Amino acid sequence: MHTAVKLNGVVLSKSQHAQLVLLNMPGPPKNRQGDENYMEFLEVLTEGLNRALLVRGGGREVITIYS
Asked: Which CB contacts under 8 angstroms, 24+ apart, belong to 5-14?
C-alpha cells in the first residue's frame, strides 16, 4: 500500500486542476486471494481524484504506420 499512497500523492500534486486523470491500471493478482488487497490498492491509488480513468492494455504493443 505504501506504493499506492506515494503514487496517489504525486498524482494529486501534479493533477490537482485536471478535469480527468488517466492512469495505467496495474494488472490483477494471479491468485484470487489477493483480490481484496487489489481493490484496496485501486481505492488508495484514486483517492481524492474527482474523475479517474483506469486503462488496462492487453500486454502487447501495437504500432500502426501510416503511409
From this structure: 5/44, 7/45, 8/44, 8/45, 8/46, 8/47, 8/48, 11/45, 11/49, 12/48, 12/49
What is the structure's pLDDT at 1? 78
Concatenate the DSSP letters of all residues of 1-65 into one string. -HHHHHHHHHHHHHSTT-S-EEEEPPPPPSSGGGHHHHHHHHHHHHTT-SSEEEE---S------
- Summarize pLDDT for 17-66 with one digit per residue, the tens: 999 999 988 888 888 877 889 999 999 999 999 999 999 877 677 777 87
